[in-house]
Every structure is written in C-alpha cells, then in structure tokens.
Protein 1
Amino acid sequence: MSQSVPEILAPAGSPEALLAAVAAGADAVYLGGSGFNARRGAKNFDSAALFQALAYCRKHEVKTHLTFNTLAFDRELPALSRALYEAAQAGADAFILQDLAAVRLVREVAPEVQRHGSTQMSVHTLSGALQLYEMGFSRVVLARELTGRQIQEIVNGLRDRSVPLETEMFVHGAHCMCVSGQCYLSAFLGGRSGNRGLCAQPCRLPFSLTGEPNFMREKTASNKAASSSLSDHALSLKDLSLLPQLPQLAALGVDSLKIEGRMKRPEYVYAAVRAACKAREGTLSSKDMEELSKIFSRGGFTDGFFQNNTGFHMFGIRQRENQDAKNQELLSRIRSHYPTAFPVGKDAPSSDLFSGQILCPDLGQLSLSAPHQSRRGRPMALWARFASLEQLPQEAVKLARRVVLPLDTDWGRLASVGLSPDSVLAELPRWVQHEALLLPLLEKVRCAGLAGVMVQNIGQVSLCRRAGVMPVGGFGMNLTNSLAAKEWKDLGVSAFTASFEMNLPKLRALPSDLTIGMVAYGHLPLMLLRCCPQRAKGGCKRCQSGNPVFLRDRKGARFPLQCSGLQKKVAPELLNPLPLCLWDKKKELDCADFLLLHFTIESKKDCGALLTAYLYPEKASPPKEGAFTRGLCFKPID
C-alpha cells in the first residue's frame, strides 16, 4: 500500500542505537530480543529493556518492528511462542519473520501484530509478494539484489491487482555477497549459521579467484589505492547506498526505506538516519555522504544491483583509513545530538505493563504440541539431481526413484535415455531474473506429465499452483521444524527436502506423517551469488571455454564456482570444496524418506558409481579419508 512519503526505518541493535535513531528522525526502528533474530551478536534487548524501548518509541511516535527472522528447531518452538507473545504484550507494531513456524505461531498467540516477510525469505518476484499477502503478511522486505526496474515491476504488479501489501527495501548498509536466506558458508566453515543469526562473515576473509591472484588490484597502474592487503577478497562487496536515489525510490512507490546496521555503533545509526531524512527532503549533500563513509564504509559505496550494473567496481573491504572511525571530532559531534540512556524519574517512558513475568497462553492449546511418531526405519528411496541431461548415467534410470533435472531441460529426450516422465521432477532455480519466462516452461512440464517441480522459495509454490503442477520442496526453502513443514503442506507442497543445516537428531524430530528427505551427497551450494567474481574481473570466457573456476581461501581450499542452466550469467553458486558423503552411514539415515544425491560438477561416470554406492553401501568401499565431509549431520548445532 503505497504512501506519498516513504518511511525511514532504522536499525537498533542496542538501547544506545535506538536512542540515536529516534533523535535523528527515524519513523520506525527494527530491533531484536535476546534470541530468534538474525543479529544474535548484537547487544539486543532483554525483556525489561524491550518494554522500556517500546514505551520510549511510543512516546516519540516511532513504530517498532521486532525481528524474529531466523530458523527455529522443534525444541525451540515453545520459547519462540513465548517470545512472540511477550513482544506483542510489549506493544510491538510488527514482526519481521522468516520461518513459517513463526508465521503460524503469530496467528495463534499474537494475531493483532502485523507480519512482515523478512529479506531472509528470498522474495524477489511478484509471485513471492502475492503469496505473502495471501498468507496474511502486510509487508514484504525485498531482496537487496533487485534492480530498480524489478522493484518497479513488483510495486506496479501489486498496485494493478489492488493488493495492499507494503514494500520495504534496503537503501544503506552492508551488502551480503550471497542472496539473503540462501547462504550456508558460515555454517559449514565455522559452525555458525547465518540463518540462525550467528553469521561469522567468512566472506570478508581472503578469497582469491582462479587465475587472478590480485583480485582487488585494478589493472591500471594509476590506481594508487590498491595494495597487497586488498588483493584477495573476491567475496567482499562494498556497502550499499541508495541515499542519493531516495527521491527516485519514493517515485517508485516503495513504502519503507531500510538502513542496515544492527551490529554497528550508535554514531553510525544517527548519521545514516539523518542522511536518509535529508535525502528524502532533497537536501542531501556530498559532505553528508563523506561523513557516512568516514564513519563506516568498505572502500566507498555501491548502487550496482539497483542500477543493473554489477561488476568489479562493487567489491571492497575495510581499509585502514576508514576503520574504527578514527575521526574522533566527528564522532564527538554526532554523539552530542542524542541521549545515551533512557530518561529516568518523571520523564521515564511508562512501561507499567512489564511486571517481570509474562504469562503466555497455555502452550498445550497451540499446534506445536502435537506429538510425533518416530521417524526411524523410513524406506529411504534414492533421488538424484543432475545439472543437465548429459550428466545423467544409465544407473540413474535403474537405481533412482526420482530424477531431478533443470526446468529448461528438453523433456522430449526423456524416452531416449530410458526415463519415464512420472519419475522425473523439474527443478526451479533459486534466483529468477525474469519470472515471466517460467510459466511457459512450467506448462511444458505439465504437458510432459512430470511428477512435479522442485521449488526453492515461497513464490515458486504459487507459480506451480497457477501452472497446475505439484510442488516439491527443495533445500532452498530452509525447512528446519515441524510447524513449518505443516505450513508448507497447507500451501500444497507434497514432499520436502530438509535444510542441510540440520543434524540427524533434529531431522528425527520432524513429523512422521510427512514425506521428508535429506541431501545425502554433493558439493553443497554454500552461496548464491548475484555479482559473480569471475565475470566481474575476467569475464565469462573461462567458464564458456569449459575451464573450471575456483575461489581459493586462505587455507588453500578450492571452492568451485558453478554457472549453469537458467542461473547462467545470472546467479552462479559457490560450492563446498569437499563433497558430502554418507553412503557408509546409510543405516543412520533411516529418518529420511528419501536421500537426495545433489550432483553438480561430477562426471557421468562418477555419478553412476555414487548412485551404486548409495544403493548398495555394503558392497562399496568407504569414502577416501580427507576427500569428503560429513557436513553437519553428526555435529551439535546451536
């Protein structure tokens, strides 16, 4: 629902940052409690501080959006329910949500609070936005990687259908290298999941590109800013800033302009909000942007995605001259503009509602309380996903219950390789650059009589319904608990691939009456990139010539970069160096209804051998030591 003047939405990772945001003129702030938010490393707010903060914001007519934008496990659902109820009692105006379990719980314990779809939901199409509205959301936070034209198409599409769904977008702050909600790098490299609010930002560490040992060094001799310390950061983007384009964004009809930074200092929050307010008023100056850069930047700012101009110019890191904001005079001047503590005495914000304890409604009445039968002893059918029809070995026809192939496969060739259409699933890409191209391809799937379509996000579920094909959940849906599985089932999803950020004990906690499988093999896709390092620095010739492209980390591990199918030149994937191998542990995987072998860079011969090993593990040799990973299957997960 468009408004004439868009809201300025500020980060509040601490009480001090909240005070700075309000003083600077923010219309709304977003903040998190002590858990279940994507910035668990921020100071955040305990129960007492939350009530005080929300009361302070009400007094100053500033709206409050509480972040519950992480994935939850089954054992955490009662605590999540209590946290949602408590936040509602504190007077939160809206909840920012990722997990569909949280969506269901909000309906049950806090139906009066507005629901906003987090950018962690990876919504980047009109279908995704429309699906959220059907589910009762009042706002969608759009993916950072959208172009201005794509944003306009979504806003216009909502307006043309008279759908009063608000749109929110990031206009300033850090750029993740990966599409939000689709990053597993931190979980696999350091055991800290970004989808669980614990991202360790390994993308900011050195990564060098194959054939480009000095990635960050410009090829021109005149670039004096480049140095050896900048040479190997092929996964680090500059911070986003669209503040100069704010009048244009307002004309697009975007409702809320969001500033990233719940981990940043209060001075940054104040300066960013003031600059955003000036930009909205048309008075932003170059001096304002210079001050912002001094307080925090990574070698400057970029608007590459918005302008549909991705490339080398988008990459950057923190340099010595912009670390720690050493301009103390500037910081002191900024601090003089806002209070550093909540008022006390008669001027203190009223938080009479907080008595030290919130009594949540009886959890026994909630849907999370239904007991499950054991998932042990499942049949474990073998499913195999291939990057192309050319990769498919003859063993797949004989050994795999389901074969998964890209959506743009020539389905008329199935018979020539011995595949029956009713044993095949088409796979939708995790990022869709032009959604209009999908419906004709889905119509071909329907006409070919395929068993269904593997979907990767919430917008693709509604697309499948429109096309009359059965959606099957892929790993991109990030399924981690029972309530979310039930929500997806209610939306028409017939089977699910659990998140590979789950371990086996958590997988066993999922409902026994639903068909749920797991990824049991593969160079797992750890990142989904919208700004390809290879294309940015050296162009696409290396990939097109068939030469493999790798990123090498500081320890020497080589991460394959794959660009294929509908995501070619649009959204390549960064793969794990070592494949997940579990065929010798197959007996311990009997909590899964199917084992999905996710083939990407393997040869046809290797695919056949691996299929045989998983079907007949007793006849196969164990994986070669040092050449594989067990992933997170047997690790404790926070």
Protein 2
Amino acid sequence: MLQNPFISGFADALTPPDTRLPTEWAADNLVIAHSERIAGKFQPDYAPWLIRPIDCLADPNVWASTLLKPVQGGGTQALEVYTLWRLANDPRPAIITGQTDKDVELLVLDKFLKTIMASPKLRTLVDNLPKDAIRRDRMDFPLMPIDIQGPGGNKIQSKTRPILICDEAWKYASGVMSMLLKRADAVTGKKVFTVSQASQQIGETAGSEPIWDDFGSHWHQGSQESFCVACPSCKTYHSLETHTKGDDGETDCGMIWDGRNADTGRWNLREVKATTRWRCPSCYEEHHPGKTTDERQAYQKKMSSDFVWVVENEEYAQPGHCSFRYSVWSVWWKDWGDMAVEYLLAKNKLRAGDLADYKNWIQQRETKFWTFKHTEIPVVNTRPPSGYTMEEYTPEELPVHEDGKPKPKIKEAPLIPGETSRHMSADVQKDHYKIVIRANAPGLTRQLLHTTVTTWEEIRELQVRYRVPDAYTVIDCGNWSQEVVKECARYNWLALRGADIDGFSHKRKRGRPENLPYSVQIKARDTTSKASFAWKFDWSNKRIKDMLSRLHAGITENITWELPDDMDDEMVAAMESERKDPKTGRWVKIGSRPNHYWDCECMILVNMMLAGELNLDVDLYEEIDEESKV
C-alpha cells in the first residue's frame, strides 16, 4: 500500500536534520550501482579531488561550485553525490542540465536513479512516489521536483529553480549559461554546481587579455583553486602538470620520460610508457610509480591522498563562488605512462597541422582552456640557426640580353655542398610577385632567396642569375591565369594552381589508379597566340601543406628543409601564417598574417615531387616510432 508522499514528507521534516557534510553523509548512505570500478558504498577517499568541490556547497556563504575535470576523472559522480545529498537532506526544486536532452536523461535516469534504488535511505523516496512521478524530463519528488533537460529546453527560459546542476557546460550554446545564472539570481539561497571539461577563448581585449566564452567566464570569476599533491621527498605541494619549470625558473619539471632517439628524433613509445615519472619543481627529485600496473596505481593513489587546494584568484574572486581544477595526472587510475603516450601522439599531429587531438588533450586531459596561442603551430621560431645567410649565395649582378639569355661569361652562382638542382617559385599578386629560390642536395634543400619584384622581366632576371632551369621555375596561376599562362608559354615555365581537394587519380599500367597530391599535366592555351601553350598542374592544398608543415617542423628523417638566418619578418610570419582546421582538415589563415611565401614554398615542394626529387607520404614521417606503439 502506497503511503501519501506529503504525509511521508511531513514525517521526514520532524526528523532532526543531518548536519554532516555531503561527502560524509554519502559515505554512509549512497551505494553506487552503475559503475564496476566504483561499485559499492561511496568512498570519498577514492577520488579525493571531489570532496571540497562537493562539500563547499553546504557552506551558506557559498552559492557556486565550478569544477574543471578531465574526461574519465570522476567528475560526474560529484554531481550525483551533491544532488542526492540535497534530495535526502535539504530538498528544493532543481534543474539538471546536460549537453543534450539524451545525455542528461542518461545521466539522471540511468546513473542517479540506479544509485537511488540501490541506497536504502533513498529507495523509500521512490517507493512512495506515484507511478508517473519519474519521467524522461522530470522527477517529481516531494519538495524537490527535478526538471531534466538539455541546454536548449524551454524550462530554462520559463522556470526559476534555486538548485541548478550543470553537466558539461562547455558545450552549451552562447548565452545559455548566462541565462541559467540569471534565472538562479532571482531566487534566495541559490546553489549552482557545474562540472565540465574546459572550454575556449573567443576573443581578446585591446590589451591582449583573453575573452572567454560563457562557461570560461563563469569559471574564471571564481576562486580558481588547483588540486596540489605533496612531493614524497620534500613535502612541498604542487599541481601535477605535463610540463612546468622548477623554482629556479629554468629546470624542466612536471612529467618527464625517456625514449627519444638522438639521431632520428623519434620516440619509442614502449620506453616512454615505462619511464614516465614526475620531477618535483622544488627539490628536483624524480618519482617513478613502478613497473607493474598495480604498483603504478598504488603509487599514484598514495600521492593523490596527500593534497591541498591552492587558491589562485583570492583577490578577484566573485564572493561565494569557488572554482576548481584538477588534471588527468592527479587521477590515479589513469596511468602516467599511457597519458604520456597520448600526449606525444597529439603533439605529433599538431606538428603536422592537425589541431584536433592536441585541443582535446588541453581541454580534456590538462583541463586548461583552449586559447588563441594554442592555435599557432610553432615552426620557424623554434628552429635552430641554419648557419648560412642569403647573402652568401647571391650571384654577381649582371645585365641580361633582351632575349633573356645570359652573357657567355656570367659568373656562376655559388653552389651549396653537393648541389643537384635548383627550383624557383613566384606567387602572383595584383601589382607584385613574391619569389622563393631553393637549391637541393642529397638530404638537404636550402632556401637561397626570398624577395619581392614587380615585373615579369625581374622574375626572368632572377631565374637567369640564379641559374634555375625553365622547367624548375613555377608560377602561381590561381589568379590572373591568362596572364600567367602567357608568360609561362613565353619562358617555358610551369603554371601551378592549388585546389581544396585531397588528391588526384593517376592511371597506372597495372593495378588500381594511384592517388597523388598533384594532377596529371594539363595543356593550358595562351589565348593571345593560337600556337602557344604552357603546361599546368593542380596540387592538393591539404596534402602538400601537411607535408610542408612536417618539413618545416624538422620531423622528417631523410631531408632537412633549411631557411636562412637572415630571413626577414615577413618570411617568419609566413611560416606561421596558416593552421589546420580540426573540423574540416583544411588549412586556413591565422588572422591577417601574410601567407605568400608559404604558398611559394608549397609550389617548390610540388615541383620537386614532379621532378622525382622528393617522394613524401604524410604517413611515413611521423615523429612517433610506429613500430613501438603500445
């Protein structure tokens, strides 16, 4: 026989309130039933980084707890513990919001409800409810009706609730988080608990300070507390980070590992996993968790049990708003060695211009906000000096005959050691041309010149002076194509055009067609002369720029792509002018940085491949030693 829920609620109200903190109460009353790893009675010490973010909301002076958590780091359980503690001890109307309707329904009806049914203290609350009290979008508990919905639901706009539970707020559309907070502001005694991975920067102020999205702004307005563990040697407390500097400002600390081949630069991932350890920024002692999985987990768990929360924003924090952050390195069931391997694989893709995995690492593992700075792929500024200048390879300036041929006794242009060929490219603009010239030798390609000229005659003069063959001189024909074809036909140059496609099909005598990053040769007619034509090739922007980014990053093992030490600022900017869009896989400009020299380098790479001097396949030149993957 069902009891009247209102009579039952009145009887419960006569029971003295449980004044314990939420995690203390949960240790005695919650039975987790939806996870094999944490099944059984709730244990606060299992994930100690969750204790303070949950318990601080029991403080009447705290209205918001905002937790940055890594994926698979136990963050969702924090929402569960707080919600069910409030349901049993201080019930008030609530809204639980997730990234989608389906996700939040799964969170509440699958996880929360299973814990309720497995916990005797809470099971009676469900047993006394009418059959239709628990629905996909609502749980009608006495004194605490809970609305369940994604961030686009109409209840966000139409209802005000004193308890606001937000899961994965980084995915909320612009304005949703702000609207939720405004609705909560209308209620006395509001409590807002948000657990999410990090989001991203959306702009910057005139002073170059970051402007965050809604969730990022909300977190940064809080106390910004970091989970710090004690060094087993010196007992100083530090947050566990992928990389950090020691107290001397110079020593590399944080997570370190061995396994890099000094000759090839490749990583042996088995050795990386086996040697990953933590170096203390204060005493510089290194702490290795052990050899076996059990030893590593026990060591990492012991480290995470001795901790403090360090406040980073005490002076400017919003009153009553506590915000927290812990990284994946603090989560003892995530093996340090596995995380180091994941990090290196993400960094490897970043060097090839693919930001997606590295962005996931920053947001979902390090629990840091993605900034504009992260999108700038380092290429030139991190390269060591090449040891030469353009001036060393500048030939003597001599006039050229009208027919474009040099005088018989013209001085030879200086050669690089073992030189086998030279290539020149021109990026065509409305009133000028960007020029790059390279010389090649076995295992080496060295840039001899980058400059700007204003006429076709100057292009021809540079070609002749630097002794570049006609067939190895390539001109961009993406714009002003008829003019380019005319000049290419005149001097027997090649016309090249970039295309936003993945590759081109080439027939072979036997077998399936081959997919290459450039097209078959195309005969382009000079419209000013019936008999005149030039050869043209299209090339894949995506594949050629993937390859070029690897060459510039210095992660190919069989060729060195050199830049002069006296390159100008425009050349430096050009080498960092584009990034790879993680959603489309296409290369896009970074702001207003000039990318003309970048395109020149791409065209020379294409011409080297056409000449059979270079055969790059993106998959062959990973920084990671593929055979050592674990």
Protein 3
Amino acid sequence: MQHKSIKKFSLIIVFFLYCQSFIFGIEVKDTLLFMQQNAIPGSWISAELKLIEARKYIEINPEKAKKAAKAAELTGNKYNDLKLIASAKQYMGMADFYLDNPVSAIAQIQHSIKIYESINEKKSLSLAKIELGNIIGNTSDYQLGISMLESLINYFEEENDYTNLGKIYLYIGDIQKKERIYNYAVESFFKAISCFDKLHQDADKFYAMNEIASVFKVMKQYKIALKFYNQILDYTVNSKNIYGQGAVFNNIADLYKELKDYDLALEYFEKAIAVTKKTNLLYNLAVVYNNKAKVEFLLLKYNSALHSYNEAFSLINPETKSFLAVNILLNITEVYLAEKNIVQCNHYLSMIKSLISRVNDKKLLSRYYDIMSKVNMLENNFKIALENRIIYEKLNDSLNYEVSYEQISDIRIDYETRLKKKENELLTAENSNLKKNKLLLLVAILLIIIVFVSVVIVLVLKYRNTKQKELIFRQDTELIKKELLLLKDDHEIGQKELVVNVLRENIAKESINDIIEELKSLSLKGNESVKSSIKAVIKKLDKNTVDDTWEKFEKHFSKVNDRFYINLQQKHPDLTPGEKRLCALLLINLSSKEIAAITNQTFRSVTTARYRLRQKLGLKHEDVIITYLESMK
C-alpha cells in the first residue's frame, strides 16, 4: 500500500513539473534535467525519469538509453514493480537492436512480454510485441516479423489507437523495403500516413513520406523521390526540425549523386553537415561526411575527400561502430591507392585488419582483399598479390552467388507476393460475394419479417376492428333493448291507464245508476212538480253516462296494436265484438278477475267467456291463449 501511494505521489509530481514547463515556457528537456538532478537515486520517480531518458535516446544514443533502462530495472527489482521491470527490459532490448545485438534484443523483449502477460497489461504487451516483430523482421525472419505485426492490427484498430497502428505499418514497410518488396513497402507506408493524418501527427507522417521517397530512389524513380523529399524538406524547415532537415539534405544529396549531378550533391551535403552539427548527432554527421567524401573522390578531389573521410572517422568510436569505421578506412585507402601512396595504404590496411574481424560482412572483406592485392601489385609482391586476389575472387564469387541467389529469391518473393496478392484478391472477391449473399439473405429475412409483421398488424387491427364493431353492436343492441323495454313499459303503462280509466268510469257509472234508482224511488213519493224536476235530473244524468269508454280504449289499443284486429278478423271473422274485446283485454295481460271488474261481469262469466273463446280460436288444451294472441300483433 505504501509503495502504491509513493507511485501515485511521484506521478503527480512528474505531471506537475511538466505542467510548469509549459506554463513558464521552460523546455521539457530542461525540466527533465532538473527532475533528474533532484530525484533521489533509486527512488521510483528516479526510475520513471530513467525510462523517459531511455525512450528519448533509443535511436540517437542507444548506449545511453540502455544504461538508463538498466538503472530503471534495478529500481523495479528493489520495489518488486513488475511493470517497471518489464518496461526497462523492453527499452534495453530496443537499445540492443540499435547496437546491432539482435539476439540480446529479442531475449530482453521476450522477457518483458512474459512479465506483461503475467500482470495482464494488454496495452503494454501489444506495444512490446510491436517491437519484437520489428526486430525479428529486420534481423532473422522477415515473414515471421511481418506476420507478428499484422496480427496486432485488429487490436489497435478496435482501440482506435492510430499512433501505434501507424507505427506498425511503418515497421512493416521498413521490413518490406529491406527485403526489396518495394510495391508492398510503399503501400504500407501510405497506410501509415493515413493513420498519422487522422491525428495530425505531421512528424510521423513526414517520416513515412521520407521512407516512400527512399523506396522510389532505390527503384530509380528519381523524380517521384525528389518530389517527396522536397515536401518533407518544406515541413522540416517550417517546423524548425533540424534533425529532419539534416536527414533530408543528406538523402537529396545522395539522390543527386546517383543522378551524377555531383555539384548539386556536394551543395546538399554541405547543407546536411551544417544542420547536423547543430544536433550533436555524431554518428549521423559521420555518415554525411563519408557520403560527401565519396562524391569528392569521384570528382578527383583527393585532398577534400581525405579531409572529409578523416572528419567522419574522428566522429565515431571504431570499437562500437566497426562497420562504418571499416567502410571509412577502406574509402581512405582507395584514395591513397589512387595517389599510389603505398605507405599510407599499408598504414590504413593495418588499421582495417584490426577491425575487420568484428565485421561479418563479405562485401567489406572482398573490398579489403581487392585493395590488398592492388597494393601488393604496386609493391611488386606478386605472390602475395595473387593469394589475396584468389581470396578476393572467391569472396566475389560467393557474393555473386549470393546476389544471384538474392535475385532468385527476389523473383520467388515477387512471385509469392503476386500469388498472395492474387489469392487475397480472390479471397476478397469471395468475401465480397459472401457478404453480398449474406446481405441478400438478410434483406430477404428482413422482407419476410416485414411482411409477417405487416400481416400480424393487419390481423390485429382487423381483430380489434371486429371486436370494436361487436362492442358497438352489443351496445346498440342493449340500447335498443332498453328503448324497447321503455316503449313496452310505456305501452303497458298506457294500457294500464286505459284499464284504470275504464274501472273509474264503471265505478262512476255504477254510482250514477244507484243515484238514478234512488231518485226514481223519491219521485214516486213526491208531487208532480217534484217528479218533473227529478225526471229532468235523471235525464241529465243519463246523458252524462253515455258509454264511450270502450270506444276510447279500442281507439288507443288499435293505435298501439294496429295489425291486431285486422289479423284477428282475417283468421277468425266469426268473432263477436265482445269476444274481440276479451281478446284485447287478454293481450294486455289482464287476469280474469280484472276483466270481470272492467266489464261489470262475474268472474264465472269471464271464465266461461274465455273457454268459449279458446274453442272458437281452435286452441288445444296445452296452447297458451296469450301467446297465440301475441302472434296476431
């Protein structure tokens, strides 16, 4: 817990100091120097600063980078910080690669990969695999290296990490360029440019453009190469990138050298030297001096060439940069051979002899024996000259065989790449057709789903519509039933009112008849005057009791049941008015007792009348008379 707190606190300090550098205009390198000077040796923050230093010097000073990474590893071991150890191992491996020690480089990075896997650091693991793929592709197995790098593309695409994706394409392009698969190399570099464009990383973009230009130069497409170089030069000048300027000036000068425009070549080499001196990159400066001297030698400017070669040799450590050192010494010896200065030739040949064993390069060895045989010839030492010449011829034959083998390999590689390209095209076409078929299948499935859903929707809507109509119909039916019930109730109420009126009038008629009978009894006892008055009263009472009740009833009944009397008359024309009236009273659902009261008859009389009516209607014993009468409505 304490270690984690220290790490967090240290990270905050690093971030704070970097922020200060930007706020107060202090350069990052000055901030880094300040932190290095004030950090406690062996502390975690010191280790992180060492990693920053290692990352900074990997290419320009790999020895210094390796030393810084080693110090960080020691701190990681002290705190048992596996991630720190893995990062240090990775940087040591990258430094070993630039120090021409690929075996150690691969071992270190493989170790870091194992640590990253154990702590499940996916991003760091993938970054380490990029470096391992690059080293393997450049030193031992280019196909394996490219395959390893290509396997990481999907991961960084999913992460939208275009910086490292561009780096992968750069490494693939570099390996393809080294193996002379130039068309594929250019394609890879353009993919890298596409990635860097998305993030506006101009420095990386123009580095990729520089690689494209170098490929076109090797392919002797000088105009295209020069076009790219000029674009890069404009960028480096505008961005005040003196590191890039020096490299571009050197490349343009080398291009003009191949075009045999030596004056322009020298002009650009001078510019490259002037800019590279400001960078303090001694190795790069030595390369430029060496290239410049070659042009001066071609122009027969031997003194200038010797001066440039000596300048180049003075800038490097022959023990660590043996290849370049031997190359420069051979070039110097060739100048003295051209001047036929045997003493100087032997002096430099002896220097070469002490270094040549460090360099495992047949071309340099072949040049060495060629120059030796020529110097021996000048010394008239023909026997040794012949021996050296035989060694030279053997080496030369071996080189020619290797060149032939390389040419055959190039043809094979070209054939394989073309075949692979054709296979990829066929696979792409097949995938395209498969995608089209899948798309058609998906469209068909989608159409089926749409049709199915549409049918379901139509059926659901239809079902809902039917249900709604049924509901409306039921509601309307219920409403009609209610209205019919109301009408029936109104009809029954109207009929009941008629019956009540008939009863009232019958009661009133009975009362009047009783009064008339009493008046008649009184008139027998009175005089003529009284009799005359009583007769007038009786006459008036008789007039007011004219029986129109049944007329009103039948009129109202016929209005409500307009077809009843007609249908009854058609079926049973022999019925009497009294029997028809009885049918009407039965139809309005009056009992025999109620009918007797209305018609001023006895209950028995009504019962007898109903029996006779049944006979006339032709009804059987089980038939209900009211049901039969309702059928007449």
